[in-house]
TrEMBL record:
Pfam families: NMT1. Residues 59-277 form the SsuA/THI5-like domain. Keywords: Signal. It comes from Pseudomonas psychrophila. Gene3D superfamilies: Periplasmic binding protein-like II (3.40.190.10). It comes from the Bacteria. InterPro entries: SsuA/THI5, TAT_signal, TAT_signal_bac_arc. The keyword Chaperone does not apply. This is Tat (Twin-arginine translocation) pathway signal sequence. The keyword Lyase does not apply.
């Protein structure tokens, strides 16, 4: 067995057998590995003949579905990921809303816009959060660019992974508050894994990059970090939730609940074991470990309303949705999260 498979087998053993430790039998070597899972380790009672495959992208990213799968959290549940190949970031929410995929992880404004356009999906798990030491996205410039303050961006080209998401709206909101004319900025789409190189070669002046890809830019001596999204809004816009195709959740409520359970457990495990989680991602996507930046997740992935209202307000102010047409509760539900306890 190769080293990667050895590691995955070890992690699965720790995750699956962690319950043994709770019964008073300690599995040697697993004490740290299961530190984050105990809080949220719900018992799944589904049988093999009830298993439902859910369609999911197979993208080179730091993702809770991949982590949960590596840890064995879908074993014994009523849901299994069926990876269907890579899907470009801008297409994930539209394809979730039409059922081409069953779950998708992308930012709140994309979900709101999709719902407003009549697509059938809803946020069911909160996903990532922004911390000062683990931001959702970072802003980079060339070290010799002379760009140091918001006004310097006027007349420049900014690259980010898609229109309609956090990188566009958080940035524009902040820049307007700083007196910047955002119409004087050239906004272009550059995938996260191409942002560092595109910036370094001078094809753009600012790159907004998400983890884990931001690690390369962070360690590139020719580049300089300008800000993170934590600097711009204190993390309010950093919730990166998981959404489900509505028809899938209506037809498969138990499987939907098991998916949310698995990724919530994985989120807590990642928060408790950030370096081990980075190793899983490094091995999975073939990125050097020292370049893989950590993620932080909302405890138990319970959705709260302020991050959603934040983006509803932005979309209304940007003229992207009609004022009052979408309410917070149209966007999310905690009904499939076994750890929500009273949240709806």
């Amino acid at each position: 067995m190769n080293p990667i498979n050895n590691r995955r087998a070890f992690l699965r053993s720790c995750a699956v057998l962690g319950a043994v430790g709770a019964a008073g039998i300690l599995l040697p070597g697993c004490e740290k590995k299961d530190a984050g899972a105990g809080k949220s380790a719900a018992v799944i009672k589904g049988r093999a003949d009830q298993v439902v495959d859910f369609k999911y992208p197979d993208n080179p990213s730091f993702d809770l579905v991949y982590v949960a799968d590596s840890l064995g959290y879908f074993e014994g549940s009523r849901a299994r990921p069926k990876y269907i190949g890579r899907i470009a970031a801008p297409q994930i929410i539209p394809l979730t809303g039409t059922g081409e995929i069953d779950f998708g992880a992308r930012m709140v404004p994309l979900v709101i816009s999709a719902i407003a356009s009549g697509l059938d999906l809803k946020v069911v798990a909160a996903g990532g959060k922004t911390l000062q030491e683990a931001p959702h996205m970072k802003y980079f410039v060339r070290d010799n660019s002379g760009i140091v303050k918001p006004k310097d961006l006027e007349g420049k080209t900014v690259g980010f992974n898609s229109f309609g998401a956090c990188a566009e709206f958080v940035t524009k909101k902040y820049l307007r508050e700083q007196g910047v004319n955002v119409d004087k900025i050239n906004w272009v789409v550059v995938p996260d894994n191409q942002g560092e190189q595109t910036l370094a070669t001078g094809n753009i002046d600012v790159a907004i990059i998400h983890p884990p890809s931001s690690g390369g830019a962070e360690n590139n001596p020719a580049l300089r970090k300008l800000w993170s999204d934590y600097d711009l809004d204190g993390g309010l816009g950093g919730m990166a939730p998981y959404s489900v195709f509505g028809k899938f959740s209506r037809e498969n409520p138990e499987a939907t609940r098991d998916v949310v359970n698995a990724i919530a457990r994985a989120a807590n495990w990642v928060n408790a074991n950030p370096d081990d989680a980075r190793k899983i991602t490094s091995e999975r996507i073939g990125m050097k470990l020292e370049l893989v930046e950590r993620f932080a997740y909302i405890d138990d992935l319970v959705v709260t309303e302020p991050p959603i209202q934040y983006y509803i307000d932005i979309l209304e102010n940007e003229g992207k949705i009609k004022k009052g047409s979408i309410g917070v509760k149209d966007v999310y539900t905690n009904e499939f999260n076994p750890f929500a306890q009273g949240h709806v």
